Hints:
Layout: H1 3-8, H2 11-18, H3 22-29, H4 33-40, H5 48-64
Amino acid sequence: MSESQTEELTLRDMLAKAGITQKKIAEKAKVSPAAVSLIVAGKSKRIEELIRAEVEKALAKGQEA
């Protein structure tokens, strides 16, 4: 999946496609699951870039398999 394709997806869609839970992202980012929920819902941009980067890595690995 190219970067432009992932930019068209919502974070919720990207997480689902990559099979990554909001809880796992929260642990990686060292934030609460509630903070991730706000970001995924579009109510906060604080760690959106980290979430996108992690999901893009997971999706890239999935295509290599």
